[in-house]
Write a structure and sequence with these properties.
Blueprint lengths: L3 H15 L8 E2 L14 E17 L2 E17 L2 H21 L10 E2 L5 E12 L2 E18 L11 E6 L10 E6 L3
Parallel strand pairs: 1-2
Antiparallel strand pairs: 2-3, 3-6, 4-6, 5-6, 7-8
Amino acid sequence: MTAARSLIRTGFSDVLTAAETAAGSRVYRYLVSALDEEEDLPAVSIWTPSDVVASRYSDTPHVYRRELELLVQAVVREETEERAQDALDLLAGEIELAIERSIGLPAIESVDIDPDASGLRDVELDYVAQGKRTIGGARLRYRIIYDQAYPSDPIQLRELRKLGVDWDLAPADGATEARDTVDLAE
């Protein structure tokens, strides 16, 4: 079973790659910490720093409502601060538009996303002058609310048939002095 986080990152990546933003094919489904400024920019990284279980609302199967924080980071390099700001605004706008055009969030077939509760939360922009060049970074923070079901089908989830407990009676010496086995299949 592929983690929903991975499927959601892949969905975002597919949407942004197909949108042909200024980053072109330099859309990564993971956090990229080292990029070559001459060849690898502009670029987009997608990662999920947190995934909070908000509630459990079904026991059979177990279904959890989860809140995923997904970050899309865009990085540009330009000759002047003004051009860097313009390039970053353009790329961040292309990202927002591409995601919104995909009906609010990328359609991911196997993940039950709540589009009414999910979406863009905020955008942060930052610039760093490095000699004659300026590096600009935008962080678009998305909140994704989705339901994660865990299978209860005996074919997909092994049944607990036996339960065993080993006892180390006083004084504790690491040796098993007693063993209980409960057969749940009967």
